[in-house]
Amino acid sequence: MRIAILGASGRTGGTLVDQALERGHEVVALVRTPTKVTVPAPRPVEIRRADVTVPSGFPALGDVDVVVSAIGIGKGDGPGALVAGARRLAAANVRTVWLGALGSGVSSRSGGLIYAGVMRMFVGSELAEKAEADEIALAAGATVFHAPDVTDGPLSSTRSVVPLTDLRRPLLPPRITRTTLASLLLDEAETGRHGNGIVVPLA
After folding, report:
1. Global pTM exceeds 0.85
2. H-helix segments, the chain
3. What pLDDT, on the 0 to 100 scale, is given for residue 71?
């Protein structure tokens, strides 16, 4: 497949690039700063400058099969960057796998009471924007992943994806490794198994 990865210069985005190449896919890296993309030679990756806050300069995506978004709200980003990204992909009219956050919007209580408190404490001001971006992505037909806290670590052998409506509320704050999350995002990009809706990646 030809897979575009939005936010390919970030930690999760870079993991997605590596895993997509390992699976034999063609990769298009969509990044605001192309020089920040590092890919070990001789692995070919097409790099396109993609600033979500500049609609007129956002690249066309008619030549890709699917986009996986790994953008977040980075340090120095003003409000609206995440919503702008969702709008750019919605306008591109391409199948999208969108990475959101467990504990935002409709999943605000789904991670358990402790997790909800942690989200309010550390992500609080960004929760509304995350929820708005999810709504835009869903309205455009995306599969939205509400990922729990992301950590470093190996690929989980017990990884799975469940619809948000089927998630059992955990007692302790849930976590998932970055490599496991990337693997599940790519599984969905390849299969489209879960279609339009919100799902939760688990390990």
Report:
1. yes
2. 11-22, 81-92, 113-122, 127-139, 178-191
3. 93
C-alpha angle 185/191/195, rounded to 5°?
80
Peptide bond into 42 cis (omega under 30): yes
Q: How far apart are CA 100 and CA 116, in angstroms?
A: 15
CB 148 within 8 A of CB 173: yes
Say if residue 162's pLDDT is above 60: yes
* Tokens encoding 103: 């504990």
The 10 Å Cβ neighbour count of residue 46 is 13
The number of CA neighbours under 13 Å toward the Cβ of 70 is: 28
**Phi-psi domain of 36 (left: phi exceeds 0; alpha: psi -120 through 50; beta: other):** alpha
Q: What is the pLDDT of residue 108?
A: 86
Residue 83 sits at φ, ψ, to 5 deg, of -65, -40
Residue type, 49: R
Tokens of 170: 């955990």
What are the structure tokens assigned to 97, written together?
Answer: 């796998």
